[in-house]
């Protein structure tokens, strides 16, 4: 039986559970449940604090886990990433009150408040910066105003919390992070149940990123149309009853679909239809 760690609370929890459900796995229905057994797939899911997930996976007590890349780096446990999951995207960065810290070259001697001491200390060590890390549990944006630190290092998503605290980012992000599926360093990702889970999650990612585009176009414009919609392997082209016309079907990225539809229209394509993909295996 495979044992998998899933975030029980916070930003990562809901989207992780939703993604596993979309991939066909049974998930808890009560958000206070500690575990959920999926007998059909022979997997037990354990709901744990996102911070602790790398510890359980790194020790080998659980086979796989979902956590944030920044939490992974912070923990420094022997785990590695199998797949980026496309949610809980954020940056991790330094911030200070406007005009107080010029740039990342002036951190020597400063006090930095953070809930991610491992991540920040590694960054400072690598650059030989002599700053002091003040470890806090959360709401670190308050630390400067309350006099505990000169600047902070924290997760920034929309930037609204920084603005509210009167802080501005200093320098480039320390790292860019999103949710990831992890396993213990050296474990075999080809183990059949793990490989199947990976294929299913990749299927969910593709179903979210792509749509199915179908349209009719004149056969003499087909090369131009195919250049716009090359699909994954190659588009499906079928003859239409009307002489000199074909129907084309291809997967396209959701993000660019309106531009492609406009360009298809401009080369004379008509009946251009978009449908969602609910699941797939490529
Ligand atoms: N807006 C956000 N706020 C917090 N974490 C975010 C945000 N967007 C993405 N994340 C990611 O979520 C993870 C943080 O998980 P964590 O459990 O700390 O969530 P949380 O929302 O801060 O919950 P809590 O504060 O209750 O612990 C990190 O990997 C972080 O990069
Ligand atoms: O850039 P934003 O969209 O404002 O999001 C980032 C903020 O959200 C998180 O705080 P959270 O609500 O998790 O509280 P915490 O600091 O106690 O973890 C994070 O620690 C930042 O403070
Ligand atoms: Mg938090």
What's a concise summary of this model?
The protein has 282 residues and is an alpha/beta fold.
Would you give an account of this structure?
With 282 residues, the protein is α/β, with parallel strands linked by helices. It folds into three domains: 2-87 and 178-187, D-Maltodextrin-Binding Protein, domain 2, CATH 3.40.190; 90-177, D-Maltodextrin-Binding Protein, domain 2, CATH 3.40.190; 211-276, 2-Layer Sandwich (Alpha-Beta Plaits). It has helices at 13-22, 50-58, 69-75, 117-126, 160-164, 192-209, 222-228, 257-266; strands at 2-7, 35-38, 43-48, 64-68, 79-84, 90-97, 111-114, 132-135, 151-156, 167-177, 179-184, 210-218, 236-239, 245-253, 270-276. Helix 3 crosses helix 4. The chain is globular. The relative contact order is 0.14. Bound molecules: adenosine-5'-triphosphate (ATP), 1-O-pyrophosphono-5-O-phosphono-alpha-D-ribofuranose and magnesium ion. Residues 138-139, 141, 154-161 line the site of 1-O-pyrophosphono-5-O-phosphono-alpha-D-ribofuranose (PRP). Magnesium ion is lined by residues 10, 138.
């Amino acid at each position: 039986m495979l044992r998998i760690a899933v975030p029980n609370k916070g930003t990562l929890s809901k989207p992780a559970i939703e993604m596993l459900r979309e991939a066909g796995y049974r998930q808890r229905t009560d958000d206070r449940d500690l575990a959920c057994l999926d007998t059909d797939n022979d997997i037990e899911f354990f709901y744990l604090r996102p911070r602790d997930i790398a510890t359980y996976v790194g020790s080998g007590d659980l086979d796989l886990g979902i956590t944030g890349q920044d939490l992974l780096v912070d923990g420094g446990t022997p785990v590695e990433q199998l797949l980026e999951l496309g949610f809980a995207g954020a940056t991790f960065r330094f911030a200070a009150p406007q005009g107080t810290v010029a740039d990342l070259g002036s951190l020597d001697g400063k006090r930095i408040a953070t809930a991610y001491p491992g991540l920040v200390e590694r960054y400072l060590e690598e650059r030989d910066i002599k700053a002091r890390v003040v470890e806090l549990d959360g709401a670190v944006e308050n630390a400067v105003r309350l006099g505990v630190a000169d600047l902070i290092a924290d997760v920034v998503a929309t930037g609204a919390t920084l603005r509210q605290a009167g802080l501005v980012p200093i320098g480039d992000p320390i790292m860019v992070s999103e949710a990831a599926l992890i396993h213990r360093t050296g474990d075999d990702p080809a183990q059949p149940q793990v490989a199947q889970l990976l294929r299913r999650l990749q299927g969910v990612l593709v179903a979210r990123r792509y749509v199915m585009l179908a349209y009719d176009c004149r056969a003499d414009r087909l090369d131009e149309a195919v250049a716009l919609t090359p699909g994954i392997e190659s588009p499906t082209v079928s003859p239409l009853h009307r002489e000199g016309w074909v129907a084309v079907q291809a997967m396209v990225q959701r993000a660019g679909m309106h531009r492609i539809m406009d360009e298809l229209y401009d080369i004379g394509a008509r009946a251009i239809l978009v449908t969602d993909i609910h699941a797939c295996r490529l």
